[in-house]
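Sat 14:20. Reprocessing the chain from the morning session after the first attempt stalled halfway. Input below, unchanged.
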Amino acid sequence: MKLTSLLSALLICFAIFITSAQSDPNATTPKDSIWNFEGNFQFLINQAAFNNDWQGGGTSNYSANVVINYDINYNKGKYAWDTKFLGDYGINKTKDQEFYRKTNDRLEINSTVGRQIGESKWFTSAFVNFRTQFDSGYTFGEDVDGNETRELRTQFMSPAFTQLGLGALWKESDDIRVNLSPVTGRIITANSRFTTTPGYVDGDFFGLDEGSTVRTEFGASVNAFVKFKLMENITVGNVLGLYSNYLEDPQNVDIDYTLNLVMNVNKYISANFTFQAIYDDNAVRGFQVREVLGVGFNYDF
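Finished this time. C-alpha cells:
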C-alpha cells in the first residue's frame, strides 16, 4: 500500500472514530472541576510449563507486560491543558533462551496547552511531545559454537525524540481532540556509542550523522486523540501522530498510530489489546508493527 493511501485510510478511520464518539451517549463529558485526573494500570502475565515426559511439543516460557495510561486535563475559562502519559513494558523468556526478549517498550509524554478562540471549539495551542524507551534493545544471534549472542541496538534515551510546536487545537472534549502544528521543531538525541561504530554511515542511526549525538529538524505535525466506549465495559483509545520534515524529504511523513482496546471483566480483571504501527524512514524503510493481547490485573485511578 502506498504511503499516501495509508495516510488517507488512517484519517478516514479517525473521522469515523470521532463521529462514533460524538454520537456515543456514554462518551465522557467535561466534569465540573477544573482538574480531571484519569488513568489505568494493567499487569498482564502468561506462563506455560512442560515436563520432560510431555510428548505434545512445547517449550516452558513466561511473559509479562505492564501498561500505564494516565491523563491530566485542566479546563478553566478559555484555557485548556491536556497531558497524557503512556508507559508500556513487556518481556518474554523461554527455557532454552539465555537472554530475555522484550515484547514492548515505550515511554511517551504528550502535553498541549491552548486558549479558546471566541466561543468556538478551536484554540491557539502549543505542545510538547517526548518519546523514548525504558530498557536496552538487542539484536540476537548465535556464535560459531551455537551459543546465543546479543548486540546492543538501542537503549534508554538512545534514541529520544522531542517535539515542540505552535498551532491550533480542535477540542470537542477531553476525549476527542486534534492538534495541528505547521511550526514544529524535532530533536533526536542518542549516545555517541551508536554513531561511532566502525563503518558507520551518516543517517544509519535514526538520521544522526557520524559522531553526532543530536539531530534537529523543522517541520509540521498532526496529533490526534480519540477515546470512546464501543459498548458496555469496552473502551477504545486511539492516538495518531504525523510528522513531516520540511528540510529533508517532506513527502516521507512519519506515522505513529496506536489503538488500545480495554475490555473490563470486573473492577480488577480485564482483557487488553494493543496495536501499534510506526513508519519512520530514518529508522527503517518499512512499517514497524506490534500487537499485544492479554488478560490480567486492571486498576483504574
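Residues 3-300 form a domain with the Outer membrane phospholipase (ompla); Chain C fold (CATH 2.40.230).
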